[in-house]
Amino acid sequence: MGGYVPALSKAEWDRYDNIGRITVIAAGPPTNADDSLPRAPLTGGVLNGRAIKLAKPSYPSAAREARVSGTVTVQVLIDETGKVISAKAVTGHPALREASEQAAMKCEFTPTRLAGQPVKVTGSILYNFVAR
Fold first, then answer.
1. How many Cβ atoms are within 10 Å of 25's Cβ, its own excluded?
2. What's this model's pTM, rounded to 2 decimal places?
3. Which structural domains are found in the chain, ordered by start?
């Protein structure tokens, strides 16, 4: 029987606490005086611990029968309201990627603000599949 297991333990999250810090991935002066043009999204690293709702992926039956396991990294883009608007699996077994992308699209996050303004954020969600 296979199942979803969190990719990182609490101790690992504490050890890698700096991974989740938000940093600007594109910088530069505003292109117009009133700064009304959209800016590049911020990057937030691994986002699992920042989710209000972290959806669990279903374990694909074919992958379970083949005892496929491993970690899938899903790159996500989160809009100004905290909703995932794009999800693409970038690593992991091909049989597990689609389920991970579907779960990532159901996740919700606290909106990120920069200088009081809501901003888009990119980051990764990790899903760990264990064949049992």
1. 12
2. 0.69
3. 3-25+39-130 (3.30.2420.10)
